[in-house]
Amino acid sequence: PQVIFSGIQPTGVPHLGNYLGALRQWVKLQNEAPPNATILYSIVDLHAITIRQDPVQLRQWRREMLASLLSVGLDPKRSIIFYQSDVAAHSELMWILSCYASVGYLSRMTQWKSKLALPENTSPLDPSTKTKLKLGLFSYPVLQAADILVHRATHVPVGADQSQHLEFARECANSFNHNFQHVLVPPETILSPAKRVMSLTRPHLKMSKSHEDPKSRILITDSREEISRKINSALTDSVAGVTYDPLNRPGVSNLIHIMYHLDETIADSCEALAGDCRDLSLRAFKERVIDAVDEQLKSVRIKYEELMQPNNDHLLSDISDEGSRKASANANATMSLVRGALGL
Ligand code: TYM
Q1: What separation in Å is there between the alpha carbon of 144 and the centre of ligand 1?
Q2: ipTM of the complex
Q3: Residue 61 pLDDT greater than 90, yes or no
Q4: Following DSSP, what letter does each residue of 123-164 receive, concatenated?
Q5: What pairs with residue 15 in β-bridges?
Q6: Strand partners, 83
């Protein structure tokens, strides 16, 4: 049977990139999975501490992420929703995998370099790098592999920026299985149609929680006024009319991409949608994008505000307690096989 697993870092309320690239797909899979499928979604707080976090802020962000996941439509009766740090087996399997993971492979991966703003060809042992680069950030992909493999996930829905990490997870599973017994499952990547949503202010970069300018991203909890302010100030160009041309018109094309993927029934493709909007002024076009975003996020925002009321604290902690109980049981079953295979 299918096991669906994915994770998101609690580093702020999710943005439209997280929503279109991942969360909406998570909900779809939840709603369409066969009854015997196991579905797990984790708030990966141990990944979040690979960069420095303030404890008060982190506690708040964990709660906000749980409320966000419920607001977009995840149902704790169907999906196991849990905090990564509540399930110790993730860290235990990480240790085991790290005994077989090669430093060479991890050195070539791009995330630690981009997090530290280092050039592509940096080595972890470069004199200027080795004190700045913490072991946890370097081995981030090993923990991510453990998240997936400890649940023997068959399918992992993510945005395009996670492809490299999933390739590494498959490599970890295959090499373990090759050297010991076949107990781990190499997972398949499921990319959503909106693989990569770009920043509103710098449309050649992906929309990200960590960019300093809050106008670069729309949060799933933004009010209509905030959505409108951000889209109206989105960087476009001075070419007349609307066309879909990501290379030459990245800003306008990103808005089309967002609008199309919010509701794929409005046109057959981004090109077709651009054709429908061809004669609109950019101003009028942006108004349509604002309406489309607001329309989709309205119910998410209302549900989120409700869940974040103090009287719902118990509800949230009951959901995460139940999630960690079920996820622990699932992970511990894998760990007995892994320990057995290793002679532990
Ligand atoms: P994170 O928290 O950065 O992002 C969560 C999900 O959102 C997707 N995403 C995007 N998709 C399209 N366009 C964008 N601009 C955009 N920005 C983010 C990401 O691809 C991701 O699917 N390392 C992971 C978390 C993780 C994980 C895992 C994922 C930890 N363990 C195991 C899957 C399986 C991360 O940092 O995601």
Answers
A1: 11
A2: 0.99
A3: yes
A4: -TTSTTTTTTS-HHHHTHHHHHHHHHHTTT-SEEEE-GGGHH
A5: 219
A6: 43
Check residue 335 and give its pLDDT: 98
Instruction: Supply the residue whose CA is at minimum distance from atom 35 of ligand 1.
Output: 8
Residue with tokens 């704790």: 76
CA distance 216 to 4: 31
Mean pLDDT along residues 110-125: 88
Provide DSSP, 181-233.
-S---PPEEEE-SS--PBPSSSTTSB--TT-S-GGG--BTT--HHHHHHHHHT
Catalytic annotation on 209?
Answer: yes
- Host H or E run for residue 6: strand 3-8
Tell me whether residue 115 is one of the annotated catalytic residues.
Answer: yes
* Annotated catalytic residue 130: no
Q: Given 28, 134, 209, 215, which residue is catalytic?
A: 209
Task: Kindly list the structural domains of the chain, giving each domain's residue range(s) and its CATH number in brackets, ordered by start.
Answer: 3-101+139-196+311-342 (3.40.50.620), 221-307 (1.10.240.10)
Q: What pLDDT score does 120 carry?
A: 87
